[in-house]
Amino acid sequence: MKTLLFKAADRGTADYGWLKPNYYFSFAQYHDPSKVHFGLLRVLNDDFIDGGGVFHTHPHDNMEIVTIPFTGAIKHKDSTGGQGVIQAGDIQIMSAGSGVQHSEANASATEPVTLFQIWVFPKERNIKPRYDQKTFDVTARDNKWQTVVSPIDADNALWINQDARFSLTNLKAGAAIDYTNGFKGNGVFLVVINGSVEVEGQQLNKRDALGISETDSFSIKASEDAELLAIEIPMN
Asked: What CATH number does the domain located at 11-135 have?
């Protein structure tokens, strides 16, 4: 098993006033040649958006874009006709495909939004752009994995144009859980959203991440109550 540690304190940062992002990978004005991507995972931004904050209409193409909100609510509108409001418990995905324009805005004028926005390189290029969102029962991930994004029909998740899976779990302190790849040879980018865990002897705290590859399974033990995101991703 090969691991690559991403400490929360070592992430790239920026302050645009209304937007305060933390970057796990090189993005915008932040560039670290050792942190450009993990396999086909290109972007993971941990965003804080002030009340009234707006990402005005801008283009994307040939990228699978997943948004996971934690607090507050964000409005989305795109050129496919897709639109909606997502909040904690919801997951949104957009296949930019051959090209799409979209905007995002804090749904509140006063309350902040916190979220992850994640970009994955697609399996098939130039597909017809598409948008989808779904509300998940967060209690269904207590001490077990809940897959929220996947190309596998049996996962009952949002479809992604890639052999990738996004899974969430809420672990009680002292609980242990294994992760097993859905696709042989994939890597996993494991992010501690909250709490702390131990992964094969490596201690991870809030917002730390561990890139795991060259294994199809690994074990996790919660040092305290913890919320985790596992992004399983092709490595090439």
From this structure: 2.60.120.10
